[in-house]
Structures are given as structure tokens and as C-alpha cells.
């Protein structure tokens, strides 16, 4: 029988990515644990493989070969004490910044410490033998596959990053004896482009979108560069209230992206350019892109959308300035932007009068937030509710989506308000988040430029939404998941007394009529004598209904058919049908 590549996928990923990154030199030491790798590369004429019994010598051979050829070199060794002998050579490589990719093969690391023959603990690596060390597990499902693809790309790119140096992969094996894989699968390669890199990739043809995660305040010149880029390349900018971009190509996309019954394939860009940090706009994150480029000075591989192919380690300004001069040739007009905008306008026009809820409050107030103020949103329901509605262009907005805590929403707004006493600061916050951090409104630095809208539904209504995973528990979710009934259980006096005693102007509403009477005062554009707290009592069921309505404005025919089939056949029947269709 002829042997080809191993069927161990983690090894296949390494080999495929070595080839795609142009790495061919290998120094192998003998053993069983590294057999899957060694046997696979020795039958592939792409690789130039050398043998060294002594691992200490192997590592120094790799140093000499790498320095002389100015190429990376791969080391491969087995279990037992083999890897220990790499240390002197790797120390040399570390201080000379030589790109040595060290593969130390091992049984799965859960076996460490159980007196399994030849299994050693490699979890502690000296600081000055490699710049980066990872464990590559066996691939048992798609998550493992993704994990391995990302880790191997990261490890290989680290060989060259910031001057380069040695890198370590602790590579698990199951001792498979199946070497029947004739054609090596092509796994996803990721490249890193730095500003001194002279061959920037070409923009792919087709639709281009920029996704802006939470972003620090954008200066005008960056906004102008993005606008110029969009104009030249028929691009659109997907934003939420944490994105900070206010240029011409902005679309606040949660309303469209959140449509549960809409077929989104037409909306999906061919290239998604990912800037900014973490986003709380789950709906727009779900749109994704067929291919993703990430642009960030940190240069890290962050595969938020599972489709990353290039990371640009540079300022966004540098990236957009460069590509604003390019034209991907797919179109000279801005039809993709117009299409997205049209979708948004269509959905907006279908919003009916909603039940009394955070979403309804947003629909009534978002566009009336006084010009030039700042607004913060609590996690998660408040941010999502207000992301459906536009704010005035001069209003800046943010949310604690770095860590998604409900623990500091009041304090963060207070902190922001200290930066400019002449400006109004609004906070939209749930009851649990308010009570968590309520001591902050007693802080002696509180100014009269602060205004809180506390949406008090007596629990974490997030967990009571019709589409939340806890919905299956019905009322039982109240006990411990949604944590209902704490903090006075929607007492009309508690927040009123506490806040007025602290010098706040207090107002409240329990229905739409109450709201109409008081909300204009809360939106007074001038700084008033006192800070304000507007407490609105809502009900979880109404909150959930409002969300269900606003995410069901659009229904695509294809989805209608699927839904209809589901109702007719039930869940089991649909699964059965799916299996039959696959066959
Ligand atoms: C410190 C912290 N603990 C727990 C959570 C999980 N969590 C996310 S949303 C939420 C409910 C918040 O309730 P509330 O502030 O009343 O907002 P609502 O969902 O009712 O609008 C919780 C507990 C979190 N994000 N942060
Ligand atoms: Mg609540």
C-alpha cells in the first residue's frame, strides 16, 4: 500500500499552511509521536527534509540553515525528553530572531501527570526560547478545525512579526495509521500586511462593506478617507451606536440585519472590512461577509466573522488612504449603498405603533436627543432597542461593550460627564444595571448635565425575550435567570426618594399617556438646575412583544416557505425531510 498524507487534520492544517506561506525546509528527529507529520512531509516533494537524531543538534542545524538561506525552518520531534534538547538552539534563535517553527509532537495534554509513558509537561516555556507558544489539539469538530487554522496561521505569522523569531507548536497526535489522503485539503491562509509591505492585495470584485465595531471618537480626516474610499469602491459602512462614524456612507443597520425572516444573502458583502473593537450589535455582526479583512494598529488575528484572510497592521487612515486611490472595478456608482439604504427605508416605513417598552421609548426619543449631547446605553437590551433608531448626527454615543458589564453603566456616564460640564449626558439603563451601580449618582461630582432614563421592568428582561434561550423556562426564568423581584420590585417610591434626596429632578411614567406628559421636560436642550432621572415602568411581556414585532417587519418568500414547512411538519418532520433531501 502506498502512503500519502496522514488523516490527522491538525497535521494537514500545518502542512497546507506551511506550503501557502512558502515554508519548505524541515529538520526532523526520529520517533513515533511525530510520525504523522514526518511521514506526510517526506512523501511530498515540496519539502526539503533533513534528519538529525540529536534534537539539540537539530535545533542548531535549523539556526544555521535559516540564517544562511534567509528562510524559516521547521523542527519536528517526538515525546519523551526530545523537546528538552531544543532549548539551547532555540535560545540562540531567540536572541538572533531566527524564524524557527518548532513542532513538538505529543499525546493529548489531558494525559500529562498520569504516568503515561513518554508524556511530558510542556506547558511552561522559558521566556527567551520562543516568542509564541500554542497547543494544537486533535480536530474532532468544526470548532477544533477553526481553532487549529487560526492558531497555525498566527504561529507562522509570528515567525516574521516585529523582526521575527522562533515559535512553538505543541502538536497533539492520536497515532493514526491512516496515510490515505492523496490530496491535501487547502486550509484557510491568513496574511498580515504592514505599512512597509510593498504588495498590498487587490480589492476583490463585488460588494464591499465596512463593519465598524465600537470605536473611539473618529477625527474628520479619517471620516473623509472612509468616505472617499466608499465613493471610489461602491462601499457602505455598517454601524451601530458605538461605531462613532458619522460620514456619508453610514447605515445604522440593526433594523434590517435584525429581521429574523428576511433572507440576508443579498445583503452580504463580498468583502467585509472590519475596523474598531468589540460590537454589541449582534444582528449586524450576523451579516458577515464572504471574505473579511481586518484593519487595526494592533495587527492581531481576530477572526470575529470566521472568514478572515488579511490583517492590516496599520492605522485605518493609512489603509483607507491607500485603497481610496484604488477602484475594484465592480462599479462606478454607489448602488450597494443605495440598496442597503433602500432596505433600511423600507423596513423603517413598516414599523407600527409598538407596545410600551424600551423599544417604544427609543422610537419616541432617539431623534429628539438634544443636538451635541452624548448618550450611553446599558447592556444588552437598551443598546439593542436604541440601535433600531437614528440619533441626531451631532449626538455622540457609546456603551460598555468592552466587557459587556451591567456593573458600571452609571459610573461610566458620570465619568464621561466630568469631561465637559457644558454638555448634556444621557444614560439609557435597565433596572438591574441601575441598582447595581446606583451609588454613583450619590457621588459628589455629579453635575446638572447628567440625565438618566431608567427602564424599570423589575428584572433582566433580556432573559424574558421571546427569542432568548431562557424563553423555554417561561415564568420559571424569573426566579434565578432574570432575577425578578429585587430592589423594591418596581416600587414607585424607591428610586424617586433616593434620587430626589440626592438632588435629582425625578419624573416617571407607567404608560404612553404618562410618558407624553413628561418626556419633553427630560429632553430639554438646555442644562437645567438639577440633573434628571426619568423612571419608566415597563412590563417584560410588552418588551418581548415589541422586539418580536420590530424583528418581523420583513418576510422573504424563501423563508416563508421554510417556516410554513416547519409548522406543517413540526421539528422532527423538518429534520427528516432535510435528511431525505440531502440523500
Ligand atoms: C456584571 C454583569 N453581571 C451579569 C451580566 C449578565 N447580564 C446581561 S444583561 C443582564 C440583565 C440586565 O437587566 P436590566 O439592567 O434590568 O436590563 P433589561 O434587560 O431589563 O433591559 C444581565 C444580568 C452582565 N452583563 N454583567
Ligand atoms: Mg430590567
CATH second-level architecture of the largest domain? 3-Layer(aba) Sandwich
Alpha carbon gap, first and last residue: 32 Å
Give the CATH level 1 class of the largest domain: Alpha Beta
Q: In which order are the strands of the major sheet placed?
A: 7-13-12-11-8-9-10
What is the average of the pLDDT values?
95
Biggest pleated-sheet summary:
7 strands, parallel
- List low-confidence stretches: none
Number of helices: 19
| CA radius of gyration | 29 Å
Q: Which fold name corresponds to the CATH topology of the largest domain?
A: Rossmann fold
Strand content: 15-25%
Q: What general form does the structure show?
A: elongated
Give a count of the beta strands, DSSP E runs of length 2 or more: 19
Bound molecules: thiamine diphosphate, magnesium ion
Structural class: alpha/beta
For the record, the count of structural domains works out to 3
Amino acid at each position: 500500500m502506498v502512503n500519502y498524507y496522514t488523516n490527522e487534520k491538525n497535521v494537514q492544517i500545518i502542512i497546507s499552511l506551511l506550503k501557502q506561506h512558502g515554508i519548505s525546509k524541515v529538520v526532523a528527529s526520529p520517533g513515533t509521536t511525530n510520525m504523522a507529520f514526518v511521514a506526510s512531509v517526506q512523501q511530498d516533494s515540496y519539502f526539503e527534509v533533513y534528519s538529525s537524531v540529536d534534537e539539540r543538534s537539530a535545533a542548531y542545524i535549523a539556526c544555521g540553515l535559516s540564517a544562511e538561506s534567509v528562510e524559516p525552518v521547521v523542527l519536528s520531534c517526538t515525546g519523551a525528553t526530545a523537546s528538552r534538547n531544543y532549548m539551547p538552539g532555540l535560545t540562540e534563535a531567540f536572541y538572533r530572531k531566527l524564524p524557527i517553527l518548532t513542532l513538538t509532537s505529543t499525546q493529548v495534554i489531558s494525559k500529562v501527570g498520569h504516568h503515561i509513558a513518554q508524556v511530558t509537561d510542556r506547558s511552561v516555556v522559558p521566556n527567551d526560547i520562543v516568542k509564541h507558544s500554542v497547543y494544537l489539539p486533535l480536530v474532532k469538530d468544526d470548532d477544533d478545525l477553526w481553532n487549529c487554522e487560526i492558531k497555525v496561521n498566527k504561529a507562522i505569522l509570528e515567525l516574521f512579526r516585529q523582526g521575527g523569531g522562533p515559535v512553538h507548536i505543541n502538536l497533539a497526535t492520536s497515532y493514526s495509521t491512516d496515510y490515505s489522503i492523496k490530496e491535501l485539503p487547502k486550509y484557510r491562509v491568513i496574511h498580515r500586511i504592514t505599512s512597509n509591505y510593498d504588495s498590498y492585495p487587490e480589492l476583490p470584485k463585488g460588494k464591499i462593506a465596512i463593519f465598524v465595531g465600537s470605536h473611539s471618537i473618529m477625527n474628520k480626516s479619517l471620516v473623509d478617507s472612509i468616505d472617499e474610499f466608499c465613493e471610489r469602491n461602491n462601499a457602505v459602512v455598517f454601524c451601530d451606536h458605538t461605531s462613532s462614524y458619522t460620514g456619508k456612507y453610514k447605515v445604522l443597520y440593526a433594523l434590517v440585519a435584525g429581521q429574523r425572516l428576511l433572507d440576508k444573502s443579498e445583503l452580504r458583502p463580498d468583502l467585509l472590512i472590519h475596523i474598531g473593537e468589540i460590537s454589541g450589535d449582534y444582528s449586524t455582526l450576523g451579516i458577515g461577509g464572504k471574505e473579511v479583512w481586518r484593519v487595526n494598529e494592533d495587527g492581531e488575528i481576530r477572526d470575529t466573522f470566521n472568514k478572515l484572510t488579511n490583517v492590516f497592521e496599520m492605522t485605518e487612515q493609512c489603509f483607507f488612504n491607500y485603497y481610496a486611490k484604488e477602484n475594484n472595478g465592480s462599479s462606478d456608482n454607489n448602488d450597494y449603498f443605495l440598496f442597503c439604504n433602500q432596505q433600511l427605508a423600507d423596513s423603517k416605513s413598516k414599523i407600527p405603533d409598538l407596545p410600551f417598552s424600551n423599544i417604544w421609548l427609543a422610537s419616541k426619543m432617539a431623534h429628539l436627543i438634544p443636538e451635541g449631547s452624548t448618550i450611553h446605553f446599558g447592556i444588552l437590551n437598551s443598546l439593542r432597542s436604541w440601535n433600531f433608531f437614528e440619533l441626531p448626527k451631532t449626538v455622540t454615543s457609546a456603551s460598555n461593550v468592552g466587557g459587556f458589564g451591567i456593573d458600571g453603566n452609571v459610573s461610566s456616564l458620570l465619568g464621561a460627564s466630568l469631561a465637559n460640564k457644558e454638555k448634556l449626558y444621557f444614560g439609557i439603563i435597565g433596572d438591574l444595571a441601575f441598582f447595581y451601580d446606583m451609588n454613583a449618582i450619590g457621588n459628589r461630582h455629579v453635575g446638572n448635565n447628567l440625565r438618566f432614563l431608567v427602564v424599570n421592568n423589575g428584572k433582566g428582561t433580556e432573559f424574558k425575550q421571546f427569542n432568548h434561550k431562557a424563553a423555554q423556562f417561561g415564568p420559571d426564568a424569573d426566579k434565578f435567570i432574570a432575577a425578578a423581584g429585587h430592589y423594591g420590585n418596581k416600587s414607585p417610591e424607591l428610586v424617586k426618594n433616593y434620587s430626589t434626596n440626592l438632588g435629582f429632578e425625578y419624573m416617571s411614567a407607567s404608560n404612553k399617556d404618562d410618558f407624553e406628559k413628561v418626556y419633553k421636560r427630560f429632553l430639554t436642550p438646555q442644562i437645567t438646575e438639577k440633573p434628571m432621572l426619568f423612571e419608566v415602568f415597563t412590563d417584560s411581556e410588552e418588551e418581548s412583544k415589541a422586539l418580536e414585532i420590530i424583528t418581523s417587519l420583513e418576510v422573504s418568500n424563501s423563508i416563508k416557505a421554510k417556516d410554513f414547512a416547519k409548522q406543517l411538519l413540526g421539528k422532527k418532520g423538518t429534520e427528516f425531510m432535510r435528511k431525505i433531501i440531502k440523500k
